[in-house]
Amino acid sequence: MSIRRTIENNEEVGIRPSKTYQSFVAAAGGHRDKDSFDRNWNDFLLNFGLVDNKWLSDLYEDRHIWVPIYLDHHFWVGMRSTQKSESMHSFFNKFITRNNSLIQFVKKYDNCLRSREQAERESDAADFHTVIPCATKSSIEAQFQDVYTHQKFREVQAQFREKANCITRLTNSALGYLVYEVGEQVSNSIFDKFVVTYDLVAAELKCQGLLFESRGILFHHALSVLSFEHVSQVSPRYILERWSKKVKRRHTHIKSSDDEPLLEPRSKRFDELIFRSQNVCEFTSESEELTTILHRA
């Protein structure tokens, strides 16, 4: 369910959402905790006389599968249920329209793939040959700068900027287990307070924001605690290989119809290995003993 995307699509064609729908959006998302969601949801039902609405009652019962605050403890990498289709539509709409003939579609589809491949190559080149300056003097930020792609490092860097609005205070400690209160300034005189725990032995952080659990990025409250503790390097568990600039794109080994003149030697070797390994697998799968030997090889 992507309420924001629905609103954006409607605005593009001049459809303005009703006040009821806007209130529904406000009640559904953007909360820091489940209690605030429950309060806003109840206020929404009371304000619009929808307390007895069965559809909304059923929707509330299923809140654990669509309300963002209930999904934060799952690793979603920031994705939404409709994000994949939205991304593909946005990409292909630059090249293809519903008025294209079949022949035009095939040609423009090839142009799409070439454009995507070129963009990925340029992105890879930028990751290896250019550097995004750090926003702070933090050695931890430099640690992420050295490992992550530019795209992901920008997301991490945003959390380091947000850290500047935080004030950290140790509230409890026992046997290497520390509890912090992090105050985040949201206006001139207002601070929201959050709890962060830090296990010194395991070098593990637990944060109310749950940004790492849901998107794989350390929240600025957690970064504030690490800064308070003078930690210079984060545990490897917080640096995910999936976003490393050194990760090879596996699909680049596979040739497309227009790649033959420029086919790289690596791709040719890859094709040959695939062909030979397929024969080996077909022969080996006939015997349990041979399969065991191949697994051990």
Describe the overall structure.
This protein has 13 helices and four strands. It has helices at 3-12, 19-28, 34-47, 54-61, 68-71, 83-92, 102-129, 139-147, 150-162, 211-215, 220-228, 265-284, 288-296; strands at 166-174, 177-185, 191-199, 204-207. Helix 2 (19-28) packs antiparallel against helix 3. The chain is extended and about 65 Å long. The protein has 297 residues and is of the alpha+beta class. The longest helix is centred in the middle third of the chain and has 28 residues, at 102-129. A hairpin with a 2-residue loop joins strand 1 (166-174) and strand 2 (177-185). The chain has four domains: 3-71, no CATH class; 85-129; 139-243, no CATH class; 250-296, no CATH class. Mean pLDDT is 78; it is low at 13-17. The protein has a four-stranded antiparallel β-sheet, with helices on one face.
Q: Count all strands and give the number.
A: 4
Most strands sheet: 4 strands, antiparallel
Average predicted confidence as pLDDT: 78
The percentage of residues in β strands lies in: 5-15%
- Give me the strand/helix succession: HHHHHHHHHEEEEHHHH
Lateral strand order in the biggest sheet = 1-2-3-4
Decide which structural class fits the backbone. alpha+beta
Shape: extended
Please, what is the oligomeric state? single chain
**Counting H and I runs of at least 4 residues, what is the number of helices?**
13
End-to-end Cα distance, whole Å, is: 47 Å
Total domain count: 4
Helix content: 40-55%
Which residues sit in consecutive blocks of at least 5 with pLDDT less than 50?
Answer: 13-17
Calculate Rg over CA atoms.
25 Å
Subcellular location: Nucleus
Organism: Arachis hypogaea (Peanut)
Function: Putative transcription activator involved in regulating light control of development.
Keywords: Metal-binding, Nucleus, Zinc, Zinc-finger
